[in-house]
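User: hey, got a sec? need Flagellar assembly factor FliW folded
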Amino acid sequence: MIKVPSITFGDIEIDDHKVYQFDKGIPGLRGIHKYAIVEAEDTEPVKWLQALEPPYITLMMLDPAIVDSDYSVNLTDEHLKILGNPTMQEVFLMVLIVVPEDAHNMTANLLAPLVFNLAARKALQVVVEGSPEMLRVKVIKD
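Assistant: Yep! Here you go:
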């Protein structure tokens, strides 16, 4: 177990098997390479990506299938190498979300999903081909 002073959750303990190494980091979050997935019953289906290094920020994420049931990502050989050459069964996707004051206007970033390798505990944010509109896709459709 790892004890983390989370800005969002206060001091929390995280199981080692929920920790992922982002060798390339996440753009805009320099110097942070270790994150953990935190789940909270009261926020399902939202999951949290908790930084395990200062400044211990927490990002909100969601399964992209909730936003677009046909969403998929083509991983390159370079992506797979960074992820430790996983099989497709060892990989799962999440997308970062932004929840403004009015949660009805929540958006998901389908342009840059997070790819996780369950077996190697490695992760990577990739940029997919698509239009700029994919950067802020409404989660709750009108």
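Quick note: The helical segments are 77-82. Let me know if you need anything else on Flagellar assembly factor FliW.
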